[in-house]
Amino acid sequence: MPLRDQFFPLLNAAGIDSDVLADPNTAHIVADGQTLVSRQTIPGLTLNIDERGDLTIAEINITRDSRITQPVHLCFGLLQGLGSQHFRIHIHLESGAKAQFIAHGLFANATIVKHSMEKTIAIDEGAELHFMDGHIHGVSGGMEVKTTGKVSVGKHARYSGDFSLTAGRVGKLDFDESVQADDYAVVELVSRIFGHENDLIKINEAVNLNGRFSRSMIKSRVALEGEARADIVGITEGRAEGARGHMDCMEIIKDQAIGQSTPIVKVSHPLAKITHEAAIGTVDKKQMETLIAHGLSPEQATDMIVLGMLR
Amino acid sequence: MPLLQIRHADFLVGQKKILDDLNFALEEGDVHALIGTNGTGKSTLARLIIGNEDYSLSSGQILFDGQDIGQRSLYQRAQAGMTMVWQEPALFEGISVRDYLSLGHSLANLSDCLAQVGLAPDDYLDRLLDKSMSGGERKRIELAAMLALRPRLCILDEPVAGIDLISIDNILRVINRIKQNGSSILLITHQEDVAGIADQASLLCGGKIILTGSPDRVVSQYKSRHCLICNGQECGYAAA
C-alpha cells in the first residue's frame, strides 16, 4: 500500500474524510516522521519544503487577496510506534488573503515518540487565518509534544488558533505560543486538553496588544484525571489605546490530578483594558445535579460535562 | 395513596429549624402549588425531595409511591421518575439544546417541545446551553425538557422567574401541558397568578404547612399575611 494511503485510517479515526488528500483543490502536506509522503499546492498558495534529515522546513505563502476556500491540511504523524518528528513551518498570508489550516497530529500508534513543531506565522494587513491543530494520540503515554509559535497579526488582520488534544494520552505537552497584534487586529487562542494518568501539560500563551483597538481572547479548557498535572499560563499585555483582552481558563480536576492557572495581565497604556477569569475545581455540582435529575448516572453526567467543555 | 408524601419532617441548619414537623401530600396527576414568602423553606423542601446531597431530613419521612426514599440518592430518585427544574438552571459549555432535550432517552418530538415553550426549533436546537443564553431562554429550555422527559413527578421551583410578563401565560399553558402528559407537578411559587393554575395549594410558613386547600383559598390566606398557627408572633409571617 502506498505510504500516503496508510494515513487514511488515521485521518478517518480523527474524523477527517481521507478523500481530502485526493482532492486537487485542497492543498496539503503529509509527513511520516521526517519522510515527506505527499504534498499539493493550489493556485494562490506556494509551498516549499526543505528536507534536512532530522529537520523538515516548510514555507507556505498565500498571495495577496487570495481566498483559499478549502482548508489546507497538514498531516504530521508517525505510522510506527517509535521515532521522532521535527518540523519547522513558516506561514505567510499576504495582505487581504484568507485561509484555514487544519493540522493533524496523527500519533495513534505511537508508544515512544517525540514531536516537535516550530511555527512562525505572519499575517499581513487585512488577512485572516484560522489555524486548527488537533492531535490524536495513543494510550501509551509515551508521546512528547513540543510546539512553539510566534505569530504576528497585522493591521485589521485576524488570527484564531485552536489547539486540541483530547483523544488518547497526552504524554508530555509543552505548548508555547506568543502573538503580536497590530492596530485593530483580532486574536483568539483556544486550547482544549484532556490529561490522564501521569500526563504532564504545560501551556504558555501570550498576546501582546501593541496596536490601537486590537483585541484578544485566550481561552483554555483542561480536564485532568488520575495523577495528571497541568500548568496553564496566559499572558496578555495591553500597550495601546483601546486595546482589549480577556483570558478565560477553566480546569476540571478529578482523582489526584493537579491543575494550576496563572493569568498575567499587563497594561502599559491608560486606555487599554485586560480582564481574566479562571475556574479550577471538580465538576460543577449544579451541572451534575441537573443532568442526574434528567436521567444520567453520575458517571455519564461527569463525562458529558467534561466532553462538553472540551468540545 | 398520594404520589408524594412528607411526614413530620424536620430540617435543621445548626440550631435553626428550617422545616418544623412539616406534613404534606401531593396526589398523582395534580399540580400542587407550594406558596410562601421568601425564606420560608420552599426551595429547601424541594431540595430535600429531589435528594440534593447537601440536604437530608433531621427527622421524618419522604415517601414516593409509598416507598420511603429518604436514603435514596438523587440518581435513584430520578430513576424512580422524579425530576426538578431549578430556579436558576445550570449552564453548560459544549452541550446543545438538542443533546439536552434528548437526555433520558427521550423519544419526544424535540421541535414540538421547543415550539410549545415559544422557542423556534430552527433557531434553538443547535444552540449551546452556555452563557450566550438568557435566563428566560434557559428556563424555557428546561420546561421543554420536562415536556420531552415526561417524569412522574416534576418539581418546578419558581418557573416564571426571569420570564417576561407577556410570556407568563404561555409558560402557564406549558405547565398544564406537562400535566396533560401525565406528570404530577409540585409548583413552587410566590406568585398568586401562577398558583392559580394548580389543583391544590399549600401555604408554607415558619417551616410548617399551615393550610392546604383550593388555590383561591390558600392565596387569599397568603395575601392576608396572617399566620394561622402563631399569628405571626413566632414565624414573623405577619410582620414580613
UniProtKB/TrEMBL annotation, chain A:
Locate the SUF system FeS cluster assembly SufBD core domain: which residues? 84-308
Q: Which named protein is this?
A: SufD family Fe-S cluster assembly protein
UniProt source species: Methylomonas rivi
Checking PANTHER family in the record gives: FES CLUSTER ASSEMBLY PROTEIN SUF (PTHR30508), UPF0051 PROTEIN MJ0034 (PTHR30508:SF6)
Q: Which InterPro entries match?
A: Fe-S_cluster_assembly_SufBD, SUF_FeS_clus_asmbl_SufBD_core, SUF_FeS_clus_asmbl_SufBD_sf
Automatic annotation (TrEMBL), chain B:
Transport: present as a keyword of the record? yes
Question: What is the protein's given name?
Answer: ATP-binding cassette domain-containing protein
MF terms (GO), sorted A to Z: ATP binding
**What organism does the UniProt record list as the source?**
Methylomonas rivi
Under the heading Gene3D superfamilies, the entry gives: P-loop containing nucleotide triphosphate hydrolases
Residue ranges of the ABC transporter domain? 4-231
Source organism, top-level taxon: Bacteria
InterPro entries recorded for this chain? AAA+_ATPase (IPR003593), ABC_AA/LPS_Transport (IPR051120), ABC_transporter-like_ATP-bd (IPR003439), ABC_transporter-like_CS (IPR017871), P-loop_NTPase (IPR027417)
Sorted alphabetically, which keywords does the UniProt record give? ATP-binding, Nucleotide-binding, Transport
Pfam families assigned to the protein according to its UniProt record, in alphabetical order: ABC_tran
